[in-house]
Amino acid sequence: MMELEGKKVLTIIEDDFEDSELIYPHYRMQEAGADALIAGPVADKVYTGKNGVPVKSDAAFHEVEIKEFDAILVPGGWAPDKLRRYDAVLEMVKFMMNEQRVVGQICHAGWVLVSADVLNERTVTSTPGIKHDMINAGATWVDEPVTTDGNLISSRRPPDLPAYGRALVEAIR
Amino acid sequence: MMELEGKKVLTIIEDDFEDSELIYPHYRMQEAGADALIAGPVADKVYTGKNGVPVKSDAAFHEVEIKEFDAILVPGGWAPDKLRRYDAVLEMVKFMMNEQRVVGQICHAGWVLVSADVLNERTVTSTPGIKHDMINAGATWVDEPVTTDGNLISSRRPPDLPAYGRALVEAIR
Amino acid sequence: MMELEGKKVLTIIEDDFEDSELIYPHYRMQEAGADALIAGPVADKVYTGKNGVPVKSDAAFHEVEIKEFDAILVPGGWAPDKLRRYDAVLEMVKFMMNEQRVVGQICHAGWVLVSADVLNERTVTSTPGIKHDMINAGATWVDEPVTTDGNLISSRRPPDLPAYGRALVEAIR
Amino acid sequence: MMELEGKKVLTIIEDDFEDSELIYPHYRMQEAGADALIAGPVADKVYTGKNGVPVKSDAAFHEVEIKEFDAILVPGGWAPDKLRRYDAVLEMVKFMMNEQRVVGQICHAGWVLVSADVLNERTVTSTPGIKHDMINAGATWVDEPVTTDGNLISSRRPPDLPAYGRALVEAIR
Amino acid sequence: MMELEGKKVLTIIEDDFEDSELIYPHYRMQEAGADALIAGPVADKVYTGKNGVPVKSDAAFHEVEIKEFDAILVPGGWAPDKLRRYDAVLEMVKFMMNEQRVVGQICHAGWVLVSADVLNERTVTSTPGIKHDMINAGATWVDEPVTTDGNLISSRRPPDLPAYGRALVEAIR
Amino acid sequence: MMELEGKKVLTIIEDDFEDSELIYPHYRMQEAGADALIAGPVADKVYTGKNGVPVKSDAAFHEVEIKEFDAILVPGGWAPDKLRRYDAVLEMVKFMMNEQRVVGQICHAGWVLVSADVLNERTVTSTPGIKHDMINAGATWVDEPVTTDGNLISSRRPPDLPAYGRALVEAIR
């Protein structure tokens, strides 16, 4: 049996996501056997990454039954600046944090967690660019390829994707 | 005599600045008679706005004698995510804030002030997207076209540029 | 009271306008208190500048009551090559010239005035590229940042925008 | 023997040429046996068409011995707005017109002939956009796919290229 | 009378065609007097070349009465990778080859003939990149600007277009 | 111990690779513990994917000691059309096939194996677009997400990446 068989993982999307930070974890979850879904503001719409990769959403935020998911993944790039403005996104992230289910974030994804107000007294990493925003939100910031603080998995940037993928599989199974 | 004759104004630049948020205030300062300079990581280099407008830097950050300036302007777009990572930028902003000289910021520019740690107990506006980052940095956030809190002038987005220009001229003269 | 309060200013738009030559004067009019409107071939449509800046039209040419306006502004770039082909544009420009109301033109905008046949015995400047077209249309051509010949204000290129803005405010008020 | 064997034809180039208006006549001259050369401001430099086609120059304007050529071809697009600013270009066009050698122009190419001041009392066609510039330069303007007035061959736009090619071969041989 | 008067020539199109390899032969056929039509998957749709040139289709594949045509032309670029997947395209190419009517192919166009299975014991040229695909399909491959093997005319790349145009006119008339 | 610890995997690169088909397998190999290297025509050069993702090469083809590698991966997109023209690439692929070491190919990557002449009597899958090229090269073609024929692993397109990643890890360990 595959490591994540029977698990459901949600990736959230908006335009200008960092291409590989969305693609790699999403396919990796599928490779491990998970049922992986992509949700955006609108269903069945093609969103375009910061570098130009097109990715279609499977569902709209409001259609997602977040209770059914074992993990939520937030990509980096400029998408988090957009994602943090949706109440539906903030509520899904809060729910997953409250329920201690896996929340994965990489690069600039931390902005979404700042707006969801779930970083107080948590240990995280991120692109150094948003370090102060995360510290101001109550987090302890470390400079590591990947950091696991209970259900919260965070990573810095594309070259850390192998470590991030490993940590996600480990945390979700 | 023109309103800002004898005044010196510095605009800081990096790639992906919001085009009109850099262009409008910069030319407006010149129209009012100020000596307006653009400084970036490298001198005499063309930086490209988020929409594609090319703008050349006059000087490098390290060449700027910040003491000689009456105001510093920070554009929005994705440039602030880059600008906040330069110590030279943070020191210039801190100096201007400490000296109570005019600091102008618009849209996402607030990230630079967050990293310079100068927003505690100040009143500001910005794109709603970074509202939480500014509040977490100690600021009171208001949703207005332009807000003047002593030497600190802030604005929200391109359609607010007329109000922002007026407030800048008023504050600097 | 602001300098241009109660004044109405029309900017005309088509794709490939020189981005800053449209943005700066338009916002500048608003800063001075004018009611500034943008009209294009179609209303509420986003036109894209030569460098990529998107600007939405407020009205269609045929909806404009030109009699109500105190000034008309023509941007540069490649838009004038398109604008000069609309009878509605040529008629608005002729009306404003006949009525001695302010007509502002910058860079390649002069092509529109050539086609409106209103440059005979007028003094103008422009990008040097279209100098011969303006002279052949009967104008005296000068190489200056901004030239004011009665109601006709002309300018050369983006770095002249501060002088152009000043001359426009002066002429319209 | 091919129709244009022994003939030399010069095409002049700058960025933003209308792609097919440069490519088609240039290759057509070669197909007919002519020795066809492309000259730009700089030799061996790739210039990019308005739509994106890259074309490399064979020689710089100042290296061209215009006396050796039987014809000169000016492409359309925005390149003519640039080409008309080079004295070397204007002199080559004047020389060819004075010598009654073939001059081919299409679409916006007429601007170059306006600046070379060679259109007085000549019959031409062009894109309707620059019709007034050509009439003001002394020309009689007709709306036809191709017009041959002695050594001067003019055409309107890409769909007229077949007629233009035929007229050029006819005139040069 | 023009060389190809009364002849009908079909060019097939898909996105990412090599711009000049489609434009030149198509206009050349018209210059020689042929009735030249462009067919794509959909009628009256703008397809965009690899470099960016837009070309509109006149008809859809399924609307073409291939029996009425004297020649079919296949452009290069990445379009052949798409064109070879349409049964309607393969059938048109087979019909023309069986009927010994002219088939023109340039650069990567050979992939379409490979999939139509019509290259056995034929002599062809192409971009060297697909040389092995053509040899494996049964062809003898030569490295020449243009090769004429009965009704089958093939060419290598854009600089060979003059030779290709000449060979096509010769073969079709 | 990780599954691929001690293994060395080479990915070959050229411009216009299918972005996710290069990124996913490369990072996946690293996640499993392999030492993964990217080689292109030139070392330390940024190559750009078909959609725009930039990836830097670690080494040049001629610097690679292919004997040291346990697997070679060929991405899809238009890169294979370029990669198949390098003798160094064809020799590396032949060596790996002769030594029965793992060769991974996806989408259009098969063209490289066609030119290396290593598909005779092998079973493969690929994008349907190049099916005939592979069959003509002697292969049996199947339409499956991933096909493993001894040391040769092939896959069809991006949505098959999870299955491809799993098959690669399985084959290399």
TrEMBL record, chains A, B, C, D, E, F:
Top-level division of the source organism's lineage: Bacteria
Organism: Salisediminibacterium beveridgei
CDD domains the record matches: GATase1_PfpI_like (cd03134)
Record bears the keyword Transferase: yes
Sequence similarity: Belongs to the peptidase C56 family.
The protein's name in its UniProt record: Glutamine amidotransferase
Keyword Secreted: no
Taxonomic placement: Bacteria, Bacillati, Bacillota, Bacilli, Bacillales
Pfam (any one): DJ-1_PfpI
Keywords, alphabetical: Glutamine amidotransferase, Transferase
Molecular functions per Gene Ontology: transferase activity
DJ-1/PfpI domain segment(s): 7-170
InterPro entries: C56_PfpI-like, Class_I_gatase-like, DJ-1/PfpI
